[in-house]
Amino acid sequence: MTKLKWGMIGGGEGSQIGPAHRLGAGLDGAFEFTAGALDADAARGRDFARRLGLADDRAYGDWREMLKGEAGREDRIDLVTVATPNATHFEITKAFLEQGFHVLCEKPMTMTVQEGEEIVRIADKAGRICAVNYGYTGYSLVRHMKAMVARGDLGAVRLVVAEFAHGHHADAADADNPRIRWRYDPAQIGVSAQFADCGIHALHMASFVTGQEVAQLSADFASTIVSRALEDDAMVNFRMDGGTVGRLWTSSVAIGRQHGLTLQVFGEKGGLRWVQEQPNQLYWTPVGGRTTIIERGEANLSPQADRATRVTIGHAEGMPLAFANIYSDLAEVIRAAQEGRPADPAAALVPRSEDGLRSMAAVYAAVASARENGQWQDARPPMFR
Asked: Looking at 77, 102, 136, which one is the last position of a domain?
């Protein structure tokens, strides 16, 4: 089978997220890393691209050069990943979609709700996939949680509790560290820091697993290090369109927490708990029964979990493999469109531009709520109301 051609913008040498994307895209052999504009410094980006094996004429100096170069080729890339600073996501994603490329954009997809709505419209008009990298939804047991909820194992879902709390920005002495400072700078990050960075991962996962969207929310933001213009801790209460009540805590000053992404779902028939730092186990407690541990890779799991399982039971799977599942799903959906056939239903779980838009609407609603001492806000994008 001919490999799909893949390109990357951003994710250069020393990047936190670049290696996970390159590992994920290459794992199954579905994509060939073909083109890249990997660094804001053109010379440095070209040099790194060549060292990764890209041809000289496809080691680009910037994304505009890459767009022009790839748009004119018969063997152009099939998918481009946008892994640049947040403020550039909209412009780059929009430009590639309009030229007929499929796009996987890092979150947040845009900086404003209006930009998000425009991306949704452009992707629909172009007939192209605009995926958003909520990569933690690629974990096998997260997908099994979703399947358990959908088939009614929990009954009606009453409550979902989500957390994404770490302590890596807790030292006030790091306030001027450029690797941290930008995350709390409104000019670079937008109207929200911790909630827009980590909280929306947890919020999206709540929607992904329950199959419900956030309708209303109430938020309390805190800047516990006073020099920060934006929040480093947030508590968000939300209500979903299917009647589920939600609670979310996200923090970057929770000393002792490392990654801290956790999801708990409580229904009328039982409850589930999953922790990203121990992703191979899912805890299931039926009402009136004992807690059991569901192991990733065991027999009789859902088709969604089976498709996302990479190695045999008892061996660790981590974030790059979750990312690989996102890329595997994208490859299946792209190939299905090219071949004029239905895609595997178990591959139809890729977060799309609509998810990115909903996240940005939730960010703005949370900011507005926090400014109004927790007043409840409509969290839906205007185009979905």
From this structure: 136
